[in-house]
Write a structure and sequence with these properties.
- The chain is of the alpha+beta class.
- It has three domains: 14-244, no CATH class; 250-321 and 383-470, no CATH class; 477-682, no CATH class.
- 43% of the residues lie in helices and 10% in strands.
- The strands form four sheets. A nine-stranded mixed sheet has the order 3-8-4-9-2-1-7-6-5.
- Strand 1 (24-34) and strand 2 form a beta hairpin.
Length: 686
């Protein structure tokens, strides 16, 4: 009888009878280059009308509010409709004289449960009686009886004749979806062409067209084998998608972060997030509150506390491993410096050194594997694969706790996290709905609105409005916390502060995450961390005028004084960090003075801004880089043409501009020292 004959007990309920597609004729094969890994496949040429009927893009699978999505499964659920319409349909398929050809679509057969939801693995349920009632299976039965063998897994059956070497594939569409894992935009374009351009009426030439399709048969019953830990079918499809697209059109950055297992930065970013949507973990950031659906770095609108692409930029900035550029991958000095940066970022011990799981030092591995004497034997452009796992674990131990605590502890983010938890959004409809592909959202919206016309207002719009309101100050506008520029500066300066060589007193009392969180929360409470925050007194008598640029705290630092637009530059990020560092020192100095005087903070007058400026810029041993931070701010105010507009009264008089620039920095320092923080110096910190 051949490979395998599956015989299961008969089903009794007629409503559970399968609904098979019409059989597809093709050739069965398998791909393997190692004894531990085999991927069986079925290759067929399919007519266009049948193709668009039997195959699906992922957004055509059943929409469900009960499905939780793991980050690794989010790689190919959104269709770029503009690309489909403009590039493929109008710019290719509709051109009458254009020679047209598509390479093979790659399709995965995904199992579904009885409710039609995609599930992790195939469940055997077909029996002999099921195969007799469906007209589409008559020719399959004839083949089996004459000279053939049939294998059944889940709702899939594949029959092969030994006489001709031809196979027939069919599946129960109630329990199986054939989903494009590679070529979803081509499939969507072909469907649009068939239904909208050709109005489902093909010409004789088009009827002859056979679209090449490869079906992946991911079941051990047909010879599928995978090495290592068993994966779900969706994860296998993800891995195959990644491999197929290595040399194809470059995917967007968000998709690359989700997919790339060979990038240490991408792996580190993913380790910051909960494994799936609709869950929270105090030691991670909830995926449901991260903008992962596209490669847009902005998260100042909506309910997000960060973006996937933004987090990647921050992790890249913090790690600062800077791989050799293309021209430097064969330069021994460049490679050795790269190894030193990797040791610094991921190494343990003193001096820091990165080891793999077997205890091998990275520097020794590079010396023997990539060098030959004083010459480079093999170019090196990234962290070797043998060290990816240990580097990720080092990140999870040394970096992740700090990043997560600083984000989760900062008031604007905490407000959103607390709301999501308090309103039970992780188990409610809101996050479940927002995680769906756009097409599923439209489908669910229609279904649920029919049952309850006010559903969207009560379940979606109410929470969306409440969450977005946390992002705007009623008087000073947008909060910096929801700008990637601030998030990078906040985490960047915190990392610097936590690693500066402070004296024992400062280290014990102030150089810790709880004190940093409280400092920034106090600055937030003083309304200093908004795009429109005011600088009391400003830099001139007009400083209190809400329309004057002099009274705008961040003018000339990260906001254009005239246009009031945010300056998203490397320099503005560095200048924000300079302000934050000086505020940290000002608060340390104020708190230390009060602690030494034994005076309760409420009973002591604040130290003058000038005295604070002098203290943090002259005592380099006590306040490392304080002088440099202040000088860079003063220099920027003096030299930047946009910033010089803040000192219009001193125009043309360089000495007066220099004095005005320094006076402005003094006032900025004085503005950011909430006296309430002094009490922290006398309290035991967790």
């Amino acid at each position: 009888m051949g490979e395998q004959n599956t015989k299961l007990p008969s089903l009794k309920s007629s409503e559970n009878l399968p609904e098979f597609i019409s059989p597809i004729h093709g050739v069965k094969g398998s791909f393997t280059l190692s004894e531990n890994s085999t991927v069986p496949y079925f290759f067929a040429l399919i007519r266009l009308d049948k193709l668009v009927t039997d195959l699906k893009t992922y957004d055509q699978t059943a929409a469900s509010l009960t499905t939780k999505w793991k980050l690794g499964e989010l790689y190919q659920r959104q269709i770029n409709e503009k690309r489909v319409n403009d590039e493929i349909v109008n710019g290719y398929l509709k051109l009458p004289n254009k020679l047209k050809f598509f390479n093979s679509l790659v399709v995965t057969l995904l199992p579904k449960d009885k409710e039609g939801r995609v599930c992790e693995s195939f469940e055997d349920y077909l029996v002999e009686d099921d195969l007799q009632v469906n007209e589409n299976n008559k020719n399959i039965r004839e083949w089996i009886e004459k000279d053939g063998s049939r294998v059944i897994f889940g709702g899939v059956q594949i029959t092969t004749t030994t006489l001709w070497g031809v196979s027939v594939l069919s599946w129960d569409k109630k329990r199986v979806d054939a989903v494009a894992v590679d070529g979803q935009h081509r499939l969507r374009a072909l469907r649009k062409y068939f239904t909208e351009v050709r109005r489902e009426a093909l010409s004789p030439e088009e009827e002859k067209a056979g679209i090449p399709v490869i079906f992946l048969l991911l079941s051990e019953k047909v010879g599928y084998k995978q090495s290592g830990v068993a994966q779900s079918i969706k994860n296998v499809a993800r891995e195959i998608f990644t491999d197929l697209n290595k040399n194809a059109k470059k995917v967007d950055q968000a998709t690359e972060i989700i997919l790339d297992d060979r990038s240490i930065e991408a792996r580190c970013v993913r380790s910051l997030l909960t494994e799936s949507t609709n869950e929270d973990d105090p030691l991670k950031l909830p995926l449901s509150l991260i903008r992962w659906q596209d490669h847009n770095i902005k998260f100042d609108k909506g309910y997000f506390i960060a973006s996937l692409v933004g987090l990647h930029a921050i992790v890249d900035y913090l790690l600062d491993i800077s791989p050799p550029t293309q021209g430097d991958t064969t330069d021994k000095d460049q490679i050795e410096n790269f190894v030193k940066r990797l040791d610094e970022a991921f190494g343990l011990g003193s001096p820091r050194a990165l080891r793999n799981e077997n205890g091998l030092l990275l520097r020794d591995h590079v010396e023997t594997r990539y060098f030959e004497g004083d010459e480079v034997k093999i170019p090196l452009a990234s962290l070797p694969m043998e060290f990816l796992e240990s580097a990720q674990k080092a990140f999870e131990k040394n970096w992740r706790p700090t990043i997560v605590k600083l984000i989760r502890g900062h008031t604007p983010y905490k407000n959103i996290l607390d709301y999501a938890s308090g309103e039970r959004l992780y188990s409610d409809v809101f996050f479940q709905f927002e995680a769906q592909p756009r097409t599923h959202q439209r489908e669910l919206k229609d279904q649920l609105t029919d049952k309850n016309p006010s559903w969207e207002k009560e379940q979606i719009e109410k929470h969306a409005l409440a969450l977005e309101n946390f992002k705007v100050h009623p008087q000073y506008g947008e909060r910096w916390a929801f700008k990637n520029l601030f998030q990078k500066a906040y985490l960047g300066v915190s990392d610097k502060i936590l690693n500066l060589p402070f004296s024992e007193t400062i280290h014990d009392n102030y150089q810790n995450i709880p004190w940093l969180i409280e400092l920034f929360n106090a600055l937030e409470a003083l309304d200093l961390l908004c795009v429109g925050s005011r600088l009391t007194g400003g830099g001139s008598p007009e400083g209190n005028d809400p329309e004057s640029p002099e009274g705008l705290l961040w003018a000339g630092i990260s906001v254009h004084p005239s246009t009031r637009k945010i300056l998203v530059t490397k320099k503005s990020c560095e200048q924000m960090q300079n302000v934050f560092l000086l505020w940290f020192y000002a608060n340390v100095h104020q708190s230390t003075a009060q602690s030494q005087a034994g005076t309760h903070p409420e009973n002591q007058s604040p130290i003058s801004g000038r005295s604070l400026f002098d203290a943090v810029t002259t005592d380099s041993a006590l306040y490392p880089n304080g002088q440099k931070a202040a000088e860079e701010l003063v220099k920027s105010f003096k030299q930047d043409q946009n910033a010089r507009a803040l000192f219009s009264r001193a125009a043309g008089k360089e000495d007066k501009i220099s004095k005005a620039a320094k006076d402005r920095v003094v006032k900025i320092i004085a503005a950011g020292r909430p006296i309430a923080l002094a009490a922290r110096a006398q309290a035991s910190l967790p």
